Amino acid sequence: MEKENFYQFLQRVPKAELHIHIEAVITMSSIRALWKKRFGTEMTLDEQNALFTYDDLNGFIQAFLKVQDLFIEVSDFDYVFDDFARYLKGNGIVYCEAFFAPSAFIKKGFDYGAMVENFSRNIKKIHDECGITIKLMMDVSRTFGLENAMANYEMMKKFPAECIFGIGLGGAEQKGPCKDFGPVFEKAHAEGFHAVAHAGEDVGPESIWDAINILHSERIGHGITAIQDEKLLSLLAEKQIPLEVCPTSNTFTKKIVSKMEDHPIRAFFDKGLLVTVGTDDPVFFKTTLLDEFWALHTKLNFTLDEIKVLIENSFKASFLSASEKDEWLSKVGAAFEN
Has 4 been annotated as catalytic? Predict the structure, then answer.
């Protein structure tokens, strides 16, 4: 299928995205606006290039923190959600479970309760105007240690919101092993929240084992180093523990794989793992969900029927109710038939 026809067709298919960070859906136009508001000058091309130049996961995380530092007041999140709405509509995404990372903003003095009010208002607006549902997972952040992660979790409980229904563990995987955050995940599970963890993105399969055995993570963010462990692959396939794979992100950071043709998502899929596809950080990796599927189609020989399975997997791996999953799966099937 030609690229234009591929994009037009897939855009009309209802999709879910389960691995995306809200601050990284912001567009360059909004970043330039925040830069001018923050520094009082126009962002130069050199400054833009410097911000988006990195060659590993830690370099990317530093750039992510610099973008967060451009925010000077809670209302700046309006830029994020305006861009988020355009992104979701443009990619035919009807349901999204996204991460937000409050640590850097709280350290800057932002009021967490005001942030939650902003998120709730914007998410309701997107649902009312576009019919798109967004649910948020708080990234308690391994970057700043267990104490900070626990404080974030307690703050999430103190300011409950319908749109926030769980926690995630993101950040620098090498600096914050999954096993260090067991107490936070134990509380989250006991108190009825969903809990997922990035693992196997920048560290070997032992990180994924810890996410499963210690954190009891309901899904694994990335999980690409599972390819190094046949026993782990068998477990993931048997238990159908979902992997939130982000092919362009994984290729860009070059820790495990440096070109799309070598990405293990093909092997995961062929071995029967429950694989979903996400973008991770669209503005940083210059990608969209439609771009990800096109790359899988052209670089890893995923057929349209196989892409249909990947799309269905994202609904199956979501935290939607069984009836909601069935409804969306039926609509995916109808879109492909038509």
Answer: no
